[in-house]
Amino acid sequence: MREQIRGTQIQGITLYTVQEIALMLRITPQTVRTYIKEGKLKGKRIGRPILITEDSLNSFLETNSFPARFIGGDA
């Protein structure tokens, strides 16, 4: 059983790192960075890390097809 990825809560907003998104979607961190660079996924650099809001992730998932087994579920 894998660990549940919860992100970080700041003022009621859930934020995820590139690495957390990569783990959830079972893709590489570089692929996540590419999606951000291409404008497919919205992320903001806050200090050193790039952070992605839960809303941005949900919008990305609505417009891109990822099988349910790739989104944080057990394989």
What does this structure look like?
The mean pLDDT is 86. The chain has one domain (8-70): Orthogonal Bundle (Multidrug-efflux Transporter Regulator, Chain: A, Domain 2). The radius of gyration is 12 Å and the shape is globular. The longest helix is centred in the C-terminal third of the chain and has 10 residues, at 54-63. The protein has 3 helices and 4 strands, in the order ββααββα. With 75 residues, the chain is of the alpha+beta class. It has helices at 18-25, 29-37, 54-63, and strands at 8-10, 13-17, 44-45, 50-53. β1 (8-10) and β2 form a beta hairpin. The chain has a 4-stranded antiparallel sheet with strand order 1-2-4-3.
Give a topology summary:
Layout: E1 8-10, E2 13-17, H1 18-25, H2 29-37, E3 44-45, E4 50-53, H3 54-63
Antiparallel strand pairs: 1-2, 2-4, 3-4
Helix pairs in contact: 1-2
List key phrases describing it.
75 residues; alpha+beta; Multidrug-efflux Transporter Regulator, Chain: A, Domain 2; 3 helices; 19% strand
Q: What composes the largest sheet?
A: 4 strands, antiparallel
Order of helices and strands: EEHHEEH
Query: What is the approximate shape?
Result: globular
Quaternary arrangement of the chains shown? single chain
Instruction: Report the end-to-end length measured between terminal Cα atoms.
Output: 10 Å
How many beta-strand segments?
A: 4
Number of helical segments with 4 or more residues: 3
Strand order of the largest sheet: 1-2-4-3
Helix content: 25-40%
Spans where pLDDT lies below 50 across 5 or more residues:
none
